[in-house]
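Recap quiz, item 2
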Amino acid sequence: MRSCVFGRHSLRSGLSKSVRTGSELTDLRTQVWTRWIQTSSDKNSKGSNPQLAFPCLDKLEAKNEMLGRSQACFNDAGPSSLEAGPEPSYANVTTGFDVFKCKKPIFLDNGGYFPEYHIAYETWGSLNSDRSNAILIHTGLSASSHAKSQPRNAKPGWWENFIGPGKYIDTDKFFVICTNVLGGCYGSTGPSSKDPANNDYYATSFPIITVNDMVRAQRELVTQEFNIKKLHASVGASMGGMQSLAYAWEFPDEVENIISISGCARSHPYSIALRHTQRQVLMSDSNWNRGYYYGKIPPHIGMKLAREIATVTYRSGPEWEYRFGRNRADESKTPALCPDFLVETYLDHAGEKFCLEYDANSLLYISKAMDLFDLGSRNMEKALVRRRQAEQSYNSSNFIPQSAIPPEPYQDKNISKPTNPDESLADLRKGLEKIAHKKFLVIGVESDILFPVWQQREIAQVLQESNRGGDIRYFELGTDVSNYGHDTFLLRLDHIGDPVREFLLK
Amino acid sequence: MRSCVFGRHSLRSGLSKSVRTGSELTDLRTQVWTRWIQTSSDKNSKGSNPQLAFPCLDKLEAKNEMLGRSQACFNDAGPSSLEAGPEPSYANVTTGFDVFKCKKPIFLDNGGYFPEYHIAYETWGSLNSDRSNAILIHTGLSASSHAKSQPRNAKPGWWENFIGPGKYIDTDKFFVICTNVLGGCYGSTGPSSKDPANNDYYATSFPIITVNDMVRAQRELVTQEFNIKKLHASVGASMGGMQSLAYAWEFPDEVENIISISGCARSHPYSIALRHTQRQVLMSDSNWNRGYYYGKIPPHIGMKLAREIATVTYRSGPEWEYRFGRNRADESKTPALCPDFLVETYLDHAGEKFCLEYDANSLLYISKAMDLFDLGSRNMEKALVRRRQAEQSYNSSNFIPQSAIPPEPYQDKNISKPTNPDESLADLRKGLEKIAHKKFLVIGVESDILFPVWQQREIAQVLQESNRGGDIRYFELGTDVSNYGHDTFLLRLDHIGDPVREFLLK
């Protein structure tokens, strides 16, 4: 069993155990509730109106107390006491994968490096004799390598019905590989991994990574572990759609077909803003403790809130109009400041479900990697320079990791000058020229707020305008077909799947 | 001087005093910074990569320390010591208004009541002899009554160039009134006011209010203070656009013309979700303390984060593309998890600027009032029943405020059933029939994300379809005219102003 958040022995297994041993959570909630009723009656016995209730905060306080207790249990009794009993369900996503261990250092786009690193992966189907039928699937922000169930992990994967014998990505024909990205927490090297240099958790001494760093790490797996010279296809949606382009950009001769769904060629400031709010909310949870929470209570409240904000950006208004409308969770109750409308309880549950399932630091670093994504020529040139500098510095005799802490508090220069869209587009065109001769399928979804459809149109248009003989196909799902927004690739498999199948087999 | 957040004597005046007496904030930041560098070097001296820096958290910690000190100063020396020296600049918004004191109780749409209440207001222009030229301006969520400068407060108002002699709302012709809404913190009764029943801050014993409650309170001012039988117009944008419709709905014979800009006839679940995340983030700040922070350090971090999220919903992607693009605040620095791209420092500043300028509880209650807005027939009928029950209960001999705390922890019923858009639209049509014979100008902005343009189209369409002889005008600003999103009414006065002027004078 391996848990990404708390090292080898999971706080969550402690939690699961407590839940199994009785109705502790219910008891705790009742205690907190009773205390609060007493306090508030003392406080407001003579007010004009009754004190509002805050069931959502009672719940979080009870959870915090329970996580604290589980933690105390962990510290007092030692890890072995938690290993008895059945595996908690979440462990399914952290078992049943293989790990590629690369002992060679990797140098990063922003100047850091990893002396060695792990990439967790799973495969489906069989590699043919000339190793020409491999498809590399790239994941979105928080997904594991478990795209589909397999003998060592029977739990449905995140693209369960998209991949398989006779499915859109047909494992009777193709050998499919999916990895957990560099920076993730499901088996690949990430902030919750130990730094071999000092055997401490990386935490926020983990260097800033980019999407291009992720694909360079994946390429080592593809070439070293499988001896694959050329992928049949690089396929991904969301951040996976960034990676599929980035893989082609980094290794244009090592991939035949590129599929980018609900992705972009460079992150837009509005998407950056949306991710920024999630990161700031998470970092403001005092349990985050500047990234040093391993072995302590994790920032579960910050994670819950960040996920709620993210969920708003993953779906669309019309979907929620149909699904929730203005219905309240319980019409008989007085309106409340805690979740009240059905759409609020939905968000609350989405946050609650996620908050202990994923490592907070992984979320921060990968979210930041998405912001930094830009296949424009200037950005890619700078990255190359910094990577080379890091490598030269490492190979020189007096290597000292460069300090990221400036001697004085950082001051925003904040020189706001209007950007020039034409210049910026020309820079992107120059950046993408390198791969414009290849075969692309770009898919966009009109109801997507996070990666608006004009970003997918932009990819296709810029590639086409290069006139380098590429085969650029563009496919768009209108609001008549999907109102699922950014999550369409997980929810409208049929509409996404048909063009993908056709493109892969052509 | 009056501060809404901390009662009569402001914590902020303590802060201003500290800032005035020296470079205390800078000193504090340097101290925090030095401590952090020391801690992190101890922690990671041998790691592969340097520890990331968190200047944004250093800043918040320094601010927290300073607010704590100011608070200690406040408690030790007593309020009088803070009254020396010039007025801090924020005090401009809490002076120079009149207060209408209503001694009659008001009963609320969700069953609570106020035994008495205050409405702060300002006026411009002169009321004519037959009292027929009054225009009531309704504000958005966080605005004060200070829509425009006037002799008692020379600071520019939030609609400074929209109102005035010869302006779009011409004070040579009209008598303009603007109030601070019920629930606000700029002079009107809100959660930071004292409950006359026990002389304690209302805090979260403040009852849930609605937009319709707000306009019923305003109407007392209009009729009692000014003896106005009929307003020439009810005008507002954003939540003000809700109020202008609500005023007409509540008192159809007491208003001649209705202007609703970037408003809606009922809140959409997506807008509810966007406000939900802001409320939950704010309520998760431990300084919020379930609303009981008056006289303590206020939840400034939660407020900052809530405002950052709100700011994302107030503007649009294309505006930020042009304004910030993918520019970073300081290209020479390594990318950071703290604000880094220019759009991030913009959001950070927007949050920072707001976080002590507005009362956190006012934000929560008014944000909730917006969620609850629904002029559909079912909702309005229920509200009437609850209001009457509250009044009957109050007038009965054994009046006890109804408890809002259920005996057992609240459990979401969470019965998700698809809504029926036709039914829902029919309900809205039935609700709006009551006012469909009147004169309306509805303005929508295509780039608005928070109040999407189809909501303004809906108002106009539903009113027109009623065929009750109303004069329903609809005016829409496309993305060719404004990319300022929801904030267009504050930023494109020319395009909003011309149709408003014409409508008011017709």
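Chain B has two domains: 1-43+52-95, 96-270+366-395+426-505.
Residues 1-22, 73-92, 403-410 of chain B have pLDDT under 50 and may be disordered.
End of item.
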